[in-house]
Write a structure and sequence with these properties.
It is a single chain. By secondary structure, the protein is an all-alpha fold. The protein contains 15 helices and two strands. A two-stranded antiparallel ribbon has the order 1-2. It is globular and about 80 Å long.
Length: about 300
C-alpha cells in the first residue's frame, strides 16, 4: 500500500491596483478652484501690491520723471496732515453714527417682523427694498427727491403744514449723508437680527413666561443676550462697508462742508491733486483698517457657527 501526497496548490497572484496618493487626491479636488484663485489674485492682490509699492514713492502724475523713493513719508503725511486727520475723524463719525442707528432701527423692525400678522411677507419685502437699490441711485434719490429745498418731499410736507423751508444738506451735511446711509443699511441689520430672533429657544421663552416673566424681562434677559453675537456681526460687517463708502459722500455733498471721509480724500489726492503716492498710502491705510475689522467679523461668524453646531 503506497501513500500518495498532494502538492499544495499555489494561491493566485494578487493584482496590485495603483492607488493615488493622498496629496494627488487633494490636488484633484482643488484643481477646479484654481481658475477662481488665479482670477482673484490677478484682480485684487496684484493691484494692491502695486498700490503698496507706489505708496513709498513721491509720485505726481503731472511730473512722472520727478518721482523718487521717500520711504514712509507719505504715511507720515497722511497721519499728520490736518485735512487728512479730519477726513479720518469724519470717517469714524460717519461709521459709528450709521452703524449704531442702523442697528437700533433694524432691531426694532426685526422685533416687529418676528411677530405674526396679516401682510407680514409684503411688509418684509418693502423693508428689504432699500438695501437692493444701487448706492449711487439711493444717494441721488435723497439729494434730489427728498433734500432739495425747492421741490424736495421734506420741504413739500413742511410747506403743507406751514413749517420752515430749510436747506437740509447745507444745514446738516454730515447728518444728511448719515440719514441716506442709515436708510440703505437698516434692512441689512434687520435681516441679520431677524435670523437671530428666529433661532431662539422658544421652549425657554415659554418657560420664562410660565414663571411670570413679562415682555421686557424676556427681551432683556433672554433675547438680548442671545442677539449679542448677531449685533456684533452686524456692527462689524456694516463697519467694513461704511468705512469704504464713497458713493453717498461724492453724490450728496461732493466732499464739501466737512463731509470728506478717507475714501473721498483718496479720490481727491489721486484724481484732483494727482498725488499718486499720497493717495496710495491713504488707500493702504483704509485697506488695513478694513482687514482689522474683517478679522473680528470672521471670529464672530466662526463663534456663531460653533454655537449652532453645539445646539444640533
Amino acid at each position: 500500500m503506497t501513500a500518495t501526497t498532494t502538492a499544495p496548490v499555489a494561491a493566485p497572484p494578487v493584482r496590485r491596483t495603483h492607488q493615488p496618493s493622498a496629496r494627488l487626491r487633494a490636488w484633484a479636488t482643488r484643481a477646479p478652484l484654481l481658475p477662481a484663485l488665479i482670477f482673484m489674485i490677478v484682480v485684487t492682490q496684484l493691484p494692491f501690491v502695486a498700490t503698496l509699492v507706489i505708496s513709498f514713492f513721491d509720485w505726481n502724475s503731472l511730473y512722472p520723471d520727478a518721482r523718487h523713493f521717500t520711504g514712509i513719508d507719505n504715511y507720515r503725511e497722511v497721519l499728520t496732515d490736518a485735512d487728512l486727520r479730519q477726513s479720518v475723524w469724519t470717517t469714524v463719525l460717519l461709521t459709528v453714527g450709521v452703524v449704531l442707528a442702523s442697528l437700533v432701527i433694524g432691531l426694532l423692525l426685526a422685533l416687529l417682523l418676528d411677530r405674526k400678522f396679516r401682510g407680514r411677507g409684503l411688509v418684509r419685502t418693502l423693508l428689504i427694498a432699500p438695501f437692493l437699490v444701487v448706492p449711487v441711485a439711493a444717494a441721488l434719490l435723497w439729494k434730489h427727491v427728498l433734500y432739495n429745498p425747492e421741490y424736495g418731499l421734506f420741504n413739500g410736507l413742511l410747506h403743507y403744514i406751514g413749517g420752515p423751508q430749510p436747506d437740509w444738506i447745507s444745514g446738516a451735511p454730515l447728518l444728511a449723508v448719515e440719514a441716506a446711509l442709515v436708510w440703505q443699511w437698516t434692512p441689512f441689520m434687520m435681516l441679520i437680527l431677524l435670523a437671530g430672533l428666529q433661532s431662539r429657544d422658544h421652549e425657554q421663552i415659554e418657560a420664562a413666561r410660565v414663571d411670570g416673566a413679562g415682555d421686557w424681562q424676556v427681551f432683556r434677559y433672554l433675547t438680548l443676550p442671545h442677539l449679542r453675537r448677531y449685533l456684533e456681526l452686524g456692527a462689524l460687517l456694516g463697519s467694513i462697508y461704511i468705512v469704504q463708502n464713497f458713493d453717498a459722500v461724492f453724490t450728496i455733498t461732493s466732499g464739501g462742508l466737512g463731509t470728506a471721509n478717507l475714501p473721498y480724500t483718496v479720490y481727491q489726492s489721486f484724481y484732483q491733486a494727482h498725488e499718486n503716492g499720497l493717495a496710495s498710502a491713504a488707500g493702504v491705510l483704509v485697506v488695513i483698517g478694513s482687514i482689522i475689522i474683517a478679522i473680528f467679523a470672521l471670529r464672530v461668524v466662526s463663534s456663531l457657527f460653533r454655537e449652532e453646531v453645539s445646539r444640533a
